[in-house]
Design goal:
By secondary structure, the protein is an all-alpha fold. Helices cover 71% and strands 0% of the residues. The protein has 13 helices and no strands. The longest helix is centred in the N-terminal third of the chain and has 47 residues. Its main location: membrane.
Length: 294
């Protein structure tokens, strides 16, 4: 092989590498955009179906609306025994109570595991981690019996009170990891200034836990708002229904189902979740990234 041929071959390979380096980002973005469309198609189809007549929803799998019907929202809002406003308020009560309970109880439990020394600390921390793997279906029967004897069935108490007892081990673990990343020198400096354990927690640790607290708030909001199983078990009066349980009322296995109204109210129920994720996304990413969870 001559020198000129070798140079030509090297130049050709370099040109190919440069061309692929320029084309690669475009290919990646096209693939990601196509994947996003595939994943979002069910949501888009649901929104479109909420604007279609009921007899056309399952006839056309496309996302083009030929006959726009916004009446589905008006009919769906008043289709059940209570206006849909009632179910939104019920869900808001349960969500706010759950958020407050998790923020208070899980932060205190996490501080104890991360900073305090007590007998059996490692054992109880292991038990707490094991409870993450315990499915709710295992404990739902004894919990129902307990709450039934307490007279709490058909109230919001079974859905809120357990949150005040740090039962969500995932959030405890998340906050423990975050607190462990806070230098202990801050605790010692506060102790020199005369702060006790409570003051250190309230004045030093808690203000620095904002990313972890924000992550807990967002996850609790989304999980509680979308929870169907627990709310279906404990809430039997239609006046106490939350949004997920109320949506079941649009589907009737013995007669015709109001699909258009159900899709319309499903879109309404997704709006708070979408807004929570939209405005809390940066806190969510920061909170997870700084807790050691990879």
């Amino acid at each position: 092989m001559t020198t000129e041929t070798l140079r030509t071959t090297v130049a050709t390979r370099r040109a190919g590498v440069i061309t692929w380096a320029r084309v690669r980002p475009l290919v990646i973005h096209v693939v990601l955009a196509a994947s996003a469309v595939v994943m979002l198609y069910p949501v888009i189809w649901m929104v479109v179906s909420s604007l279609r007549p009921g007899n056309e929803i399952f006839r056309d799998p496309g996302i083009l609306v030929k006959d726009l019907r916004i009446d589905n929202y008006r009919v769906g809002w008043n289709a059940l025994t209570e206006p849909f406003t009632r179910y939104l308020l019920n869900s808001a009560v349960v969500v706010l109570g759950s958020i407050l309970g998790n923020l208070v109880s899980c932060s205190m439990a996490a501080y104890a595991f991360a900073r305090l020394e007590f007998v059996g600390k490692k054992f109880w921390f292991a038990i707490m981690l094991l409870s993450i793997m315990l499915p709710i279906h295992v404990v739902i029967v004894p919990q129902y019996i307990l709450f039934s004897h307490a007279g709490w069935i058909n109230t919001f108490l079974p859905l809120i009170v357990p949150k005040l007892l740090a039962t969500d081990a995932f959030f405890v673990f998340l906050m423990v990891q975050f607190i462990r990343g806070i230098p202990r020198e801050l605790d010692e400096a506060a102790r020199i200034d005369g702060c006790g354990r409570g003051s250190i927690f309230l004045r030093v640790i808690l203000p620095l836990m904002v990313p972890a607290l924000a992550t807990t708030t967002i996850f609790t909001f989304i999980w509680t708002w979308n929870d169907f199983f627990s709310q279906l078990i404990y809430l039997t009066d239609p006046h106490m229904y939350t949004v997920p349980v109320a949506l079941r009322g649009f589907v009737d296995s013995t007669s015709s189902s109001s699909w258009g109204s159900m899709f319309a109210m499903s879109v309404v129920s997704l709006v708070p979740v979408f807004l929570a994720f939209l405005f809390g996304q940066r806190f969510l990413i920061k909170g997870i990234a700084t807790t050691g969870i990879k």
